[in-house]
Amino acid sequence: MVWLSSEVMFFGGLFAMYFTLRSTSPTLWEESSALLDWQLALANTIILVLSSVTAQFGVFAAERLQPRRAGGILDVKRWGMVEWFILTFIMGAIFVSVQSYEYAVLVSEGITIPANAYGSAFYITTGFHALHVAGGLVAFLFVIGRAYLAKRFGHHEATSAIVVSYYWHFVDVVWIVLFAIVYFLR
User: Fold this and answer.
1) Taking the model in full, what pTM does it have?
2) What Enzyme Commission number(s) apply to this enzyme (predicted)?
3) CA-to-CA distance for 85 and 132, rounded, in angstroms?
4) Does residue 139 contact residue 122 with C-beta atoms inside 8 Å?
5) Which of 32, 181, 7 is nearest to 120 (CA)?
6) Which pLDDT score, from 0 to 100, does residue 37 have?
7) pLDDT tens digits, residue range 108-151?
8) Angstrom distances, CA of residue 127 to CA of 1, 77, 100
9) DSSP letter at 186?
């Protein structure tokens, strides 16, 4: 929790940078933000929010001390933590891939880090978030691997899953705020 609190401060600083630069160059912000594809970002946001739901289902399974599915792969009601976390990982990877695609499109339209203050603020804030998502993906792989290596899935392994989900939910909340500020606040 202390570490997540420090992350709140870190992202608070990024938001302050964004608002400060935005207030000093309103015309640049208006012109540059018009190039953003808010529909693509909204779809990507929905994917990330749904990944938080699947992560929570994984936590519920971990709390039941059920590391893996108890039925067929299509029997979602009997999925364990691993299956839910794999689905969460896939959705998180899709989020990062779509964000990378958006970056490529924006670079082709001249929005780059060295181009202007808007490019710097946009890529720094969303890029640091993407790095946090990537860190969460690594954490999910770690927890999934531990579930496979554990001779007995117990409370220690379940606690690891819960802690990773806290981080993932935090990353999702930060993105929701970031999405609202970057794509809708004009």
Assistant:
1) 0.90
2) 7.1.1.9
3) 17
4) no
5) 32
6) 95
7) 999 999 999 999 999 999 999 999 999 999 999 999 999 988 88
8) 23, 36, 9
9) -
Half-sphere exposure of 55 (CA within 13 A, CB side): 30
Residue 148: CA atoms inside 13 Å, Cβ hemisphere, count?
Answer: 9
* Contact indicator for 140, 88 with CB cutoff of 8 Å: yes
Query: What would the two tokens of residue 122 be?
Result: 């946009």
Ranges of H-type helices in 25-116: 26-33, 38-63, 81-108
The pair of structure tokens assigned to 115 is: 């181009």
* Segment 61-117, tens digit of pLDDT: 999 999 888 888 888 888 999 999 999 999 999 999 999 999 999 999 999 999 999
Please answer whether residues 130 and 175 qualify as being in contact, where contact means their C-beta atoms are separated by less than 8 angstroms: no
**Domains assigned to the chain:** 2-184 (1.20.120.80)
Q: How far apart are CA 139 and CA 141, in angstroms?
A: 5
Q: Is 37 helix (H, G, I), strand (E, B) or coil?
A: coil
Residue with tokens 């749904």: 50
